[in-house]
Amino acid sequence: MADPPPETEECDVMTDMEQALTISGGIFAVMMLTQYGRRKYDLHKVLMPIGTVSAVGYFYLKGMPGQHADVVVYLVGAAIGLVCGLVATLTTGVERDPDTGKVHTRCGVGFVAIWTAVVALRVAFIYLAEHNTWFRDHLGTFMLDHHIVQDAIAPFFVIMALAMVLTRVFLLLARVRLLAPAGTVTRGSSPVRG
Question: Which of 34, 36, 65 is nearest to 50 (CA)?
Answer without folding.
Answer: 34
